[in-house]
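Let's sit down with a protein and look at its sequence and fold side by side. Once you have written the record down, we can walk along the chain together.
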Amino acid sequence: MSKAQVTKAHIVEQAAALFNQQGYAGSSMSDVMRVTGLQKGGIYNHFRSKEELALEAFGFAVQRIQQRFTGALKGKRHAVDRLMAILSVYERFLADPPVQGGCPLLNTAVESDDAHPALRGRCCINRVLRTG
């Protein structure tokens, strides 16, 4: 990975935890600067807007959850084994959350219900994909 890619990944990971804990609306660019250790220009060098960063951070958070379930379900063919694997993932969430602050899908759905159409759309797509 190039230095720019490493920096962008760092911003996304830190912003994912921040937005998941404080919400998109409750997080300022100063908060993003604080958790990343970067200046505003360093952040805007990688993202055109706070909304673009939030969308990537949400995608990162969802991917982290997907990885947990994919790993747990790998090689499990029988329904009982699959169910137990899913439950084991949830059991680990408290001690070792994929992203700090709770469930990113639920948090984003609640926050974006009345605002942030792009986040609401992304969250709804993920809910449909999970249940469909």
Summary: The two ends are 35 Å apart (CA to CA).
